[in-house]
Amino acid sequence: MAWRPTAFWRLRRLEAFAGWRHGSNWRSLLGSKPRQKQRDLQQRLRDAKGDQVLQLFQREGSFFDTIHLLTALRAVVLSPPSSGSLGPLLKRAAAIAPELTGNDLAALAWSLARLEVKLEDQAAFATAAHALSAATTGCGTLKSAELSVVAWAMAKLPQEPSEDAIQHVLQEVKARVDQLTGKETVNLVWAFSKMQVRDVNLIQQMAKRAVKDFSTLNRQDTGNAAWAFAKADVSCETLMSRIREKFLSESDAFDAQEFASIIWAFAWLDAADEVLLRRFRGTALKVAGQLNCGGLARVSWAFASMAEAQGPLFGQLKSSARRLGLGSFGSTELSKITWAFAKAEEIEAGEPLMLDIARQVEERMATLNARDVDMMAWAFAKVNADTELMARLAKQAVHLAPHLDAQGLANCAAAFALLRVAVSGWRPVLVRRSAEEILHFSAQALCDLRWALTVQGWVEPTLENAIATAPGWAERSDYVHETQAGAVADCFKHLVLVALLQNLQDACLGNANHGDDSSIFYVDTHAGAGLYEVKEPHRENLRRLLSGSHGLEMPASLHAYIDCLNRFEGYPGSPVVALDFLARHRSTLSEQRAVLFEAARSNVQRLCDHVKGFSGVEVLHEDAYRGLPKLFTVSPRSPHLVFIDPPYDLCFADNLNFTLVQQIQQHWPESCVAIWLFWLGTPCVMTIDPGDSTEGCPGLDRCLCVNSRSVPARAPKLQ
Prior knowledge:
By secondary structure, the protein is mainly α. It has 32 helices and 9 strands. The strands form 3 sheets. It has a 5-stranded parallel β-sheet with strand order 5-4-1-6-7, sandwiched between helices. The longest helix has 26 residues, at 488-513.
């Protein structure tokens, strides 16, 4: 009986090599050479292509151990099979996943993330992906390299990993962040950004680690680092500076996709200086024909976001889109290039490329996600696309409304309003979701939403009140009036103001002669600080104006304006110009009153100091778009002149002004309203009559727009 233990241990060895637990018949192996068979099978798998691997697994799958299975998966990744099903192989992978640790788990993760799966194998693939997620949670400690591969794969797989798996990886990274290599750091941040894991302190630590090991990063790592840390929305100025230096010194060596990641990152962070922009332009022209769909989408989006719409550049990008074929773009990639071409004004509604995009959107409508819908809606509205297609997008927006963020809601609201699209269900869902997200609306988004409600004629008092008091307005940066102080356009604007006041004074004199009211009530909606220091080059322009006017015969309004300039040490803004005029003509007026609105806290105290010497002045620290309508009830008497001179730092800001005009016309029909507009075209004088479009202000009777070549830096943001 002494032979029994020996036979027993021999069978155990055969079990280990032949995978007996997976169904092999150990008795059939007693007369074979199991070790040699295992080695032969492994060698054949290493040399096999995808189709051969599937055939081997079909014939000898019962002999596959863990190493064989992982080798087989790697082989079908590197050489995808032309026929046959991956289902059985993936089911086996799911079965062994709970037993894997360390390098084997990383190998399985890598293969699953890179695998091309046919529709019929999706269910088995999803099972394997979920098994990987579960195995990650229970695998214990992984080496740093293994951890970075597993995290990368979890982020790349279409199946969302479990929260437990994400937290396990996160805790593992926190425990060893100082031991990570530069490449491991980049891969992990890429994974966290992709999975939308937000841990500011950890990302900042990892940024420092990446800077420390930056010299070890190759160009692909550099591109990945740029994308990953930018997507994480964490300030990493030192790292981005190193990436900038590396790109500028080696730009010709970066391939097209690496370049796409870098330009996207700097556009997303709004961190590209003029030197970098010039290099971006040159590189884009060289590599445009080498970009894949994702790279082309990123590059197009980046240039459009940075307002870099140059004809030759976007012409190349459009050619690349046609070369790749729109059918090869994913829905998100398609929405990005459509938005970019529309933003750059490089596409028109009737051109072949736009028609092809419209066909693609029609075919994919049911698969578009919320972000795709809002970008497509904005782009189609920009090019004045087919309203029937927009109506179908609006129906999809109704369905996806729970997933639209504040910016998406604002984009869709403005886009559908612009083309007057209103489908069943959109209004109530827009109002409800906007109220839910109101704390997250930016100033621009609030502006878009308010304008959309006005254009559609939707009266929603509760939402209007929420918009008026939303915190997003406070995040809007204060307009720096000093940048235009003394500019030719600014002087001309104040000259027009003086001419209007003179006309009012003449009317008052006529009224006084007939025993009627001879008072003037003035309202300034964007008063600013009142007085400013003039800087070059405007100082020289102002000096020439003042010195060149001596001894000349001038219209009374110009003479009065120059006198005003000479009376103050600083440069007077519109409220001081108006108050100075009223003060100098006090004897001819029965009463004078002025209400000055200023929303910027930094300007209010300065304004109060600069106008305290004038009588009949009320300074209100409030946004005029909210504050002025309050005067309708407390001041039934109409102002003689309402002067609206906004910064135009937001798109659709001009439409807010037209809305304000409507309100004034309704409550103060006798008032004169002066709006300062910037017309971005050939200098002209333009009259808008009642029959003309006034962008949502049908009650505007007549508008005289006088423009100048001198426009503020932010004026190009007008749409």
